[in-house]
């Protein structure tokens, strides 16, 4: 059977899977999407062989053979953008040609046999963990920024899902910054630990945009892969096959030097002073004396220097430490609290940054490596 669909509906469906369609590939079939009609449901699927994502949109069936065809998505998407959102289009298939009709005219697209398109893996038959959309988005947004962008450090390019008896830890690091988000309202005791590529989680985050915020995903951990299910969107991805560092071993237990700062005031200081920092090193020196933080930057080559004083609540003797200002700014952008606690152990040891107060059912911890001056 053929089908009718509003241009906006199909446009949104294609947009959900489009980020996974590679512009270049050793396997040309992956440069296409699959359209698979089953009655009133049209499946739209994309894959790069590492990540597969599919979504379903509602259509109005017409007489004729069902549409089932692989084809390049860009031209079709560009055509759909040329119509108003409520424009109704008719789709029919003639062998490997997709025929599209509107009140303005007729359009044809050459396709590929659907049998050539990679199969979508079956959902694991085991217990899953329920992810409210808000929690899933929080996990991605609050951890992905700290993952490594270097493919040569494969183990650090993902987010580590560490399921424990009473809580789940989500961890990301690039060896300079680490974030651990602990949620005690998401648990799946006995589940395998998962190292999921940031790209996969980002694609899924984009795919669920526009869906009701009250919805939830179900994550099914499996051997070598992670399967996310929602009635409108499903994604499966290969796990990163690498050993993740022992993140618990690098977290200092009780650093003796503790400063409590206003998050907004500290952010503003960093933004102003980073303009004057050395472009080569980009570090900022922090000096704690009494209840005052003195922040300093300089660029000897450019003849630039800056210094600001911030009030704080500080516990400990006078102390100095230095960080890359860009790293501190990145952490503070993802620290959603009015105040922060900066816990320091030594000028050459990782410092802890924690939001204050912590939100219910969660604990967020950032680790930042200092610069030795």
Account of the protein in words:
The protein is an alpha+beta fold. The protein folds into three domains: 2-116, DNA Polymerase III, Chain A, domain 2; 129-249, DNA Polymerase III, subunit A, domain 2 (DNA Polymerase III, Chain A, domain 2); 252-368, DNA Polymerase III, subunit A, domain 2 (DNA Polymerase III, Chain A, domain 2, Roll). The chain is 17% helix and 41% strand. The protein has six helices and 26 strands. The protein has helices at residues 7-17, 73-81, 133-143, 198-207, 263-274, 325-333; strands at 2-6, 33-38, 41-47, 51-58, 60-62, 68-71, 88-94, 97-101, 106-110, 129-132, 158-163, 168-173, 177-183, 194-197, 216-222, 225-229, 233-238, 257-262, 283-289, 292-299, 304-311, 313-315, 319-324, 339-344, 351-356, 362-368. Strands 14-11-12-13-26-25-24-18-22 form a nine-stranded antiparallel sheet. An eight-stranded antiparallel sheet has the order 6-2-3-4-17-16-15-10. Strand 3 and strand 4 (51-58) form a beta hairpin. Helix 1 (7-17) runs antiparallel to helix 2 (73-81) and helix 5 (263-274) runs antiparallel to helix 6. The model has no long low-confidence stretch (mean pLDDT 93).
């Amino acid at each position: 059977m053929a089908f009718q669909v509003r241009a906006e509906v199909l446009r949104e469906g294609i947009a959900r899977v489009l980020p996974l369609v590679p512009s270049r590939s050793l396997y040309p079939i992956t440069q296409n999407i699959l359209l698979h009609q089953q009655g009133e449901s049209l499946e739209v699927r994309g894959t790069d062989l590492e990540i597969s994502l599919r979504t379903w949109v509602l259509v109005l069936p017409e007489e004729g053979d069902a549409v089932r065809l692989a084809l390049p998505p860009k031209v079709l998407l560009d055509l759909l953008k040329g119509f108003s959102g409520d424009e109704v289009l008719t789709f029919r298939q003639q062998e490997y040609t997709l025929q599209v009709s509107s009140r303005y005219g007729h359009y044809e697209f050459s396709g590929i046999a659907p049998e050539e398109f990679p199969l979508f893996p079956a959902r694991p038959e085991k217990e899953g963990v329920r992810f409210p959309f808000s929690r899933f988005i929080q996990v991605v947004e609050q951890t992905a920024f700290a993952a490594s962008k270097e493919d040569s450090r494969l183990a650090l390019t993902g987010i580590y899902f560490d399921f424990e008896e009473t809580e789940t830890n989500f961890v990301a690091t690039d060896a300079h910054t680490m974030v651990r988000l602990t949620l005690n309202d998401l648990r799946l005791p006995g589940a395998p630990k998962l190292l999921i590529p940031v790209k996969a989680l980002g694609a899924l985050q984009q795919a669920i945009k526009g869906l009701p915020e009250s919805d939830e995903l179900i994550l099914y951990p499996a051997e070598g892969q992670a399967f996310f299910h929602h009635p409108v969107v499903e994604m499966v991805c290969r796990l990163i096959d690498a050993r993740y560092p022992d993140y618990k071993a690098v977290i200092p237990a009780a650093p003796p030097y503790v400063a409590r700062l206003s998050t907004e005031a500290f952010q503003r200081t960093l933004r102003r002073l980073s303009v004057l920092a050395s472009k080569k090193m980009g570090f900022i020196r922090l000096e704690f004396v009494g209840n005052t933080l003195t922040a300093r930057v300089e660029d000897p080559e450019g003849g630039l220097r800056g210094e600001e004083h911030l009030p704080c609540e500080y516990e400990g003797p006078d102390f100095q430490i230095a960080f890359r200002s860009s790293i501190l700014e990145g952490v503070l952008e993802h620290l959603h609290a009015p105040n922060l606690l900066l816990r320091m152990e030594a000028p050459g040891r990782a410092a802890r940054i924690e939001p204050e107060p912590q939100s219910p059912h969660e604990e967020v911890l950032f680790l930042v490596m200092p610069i030795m001056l």
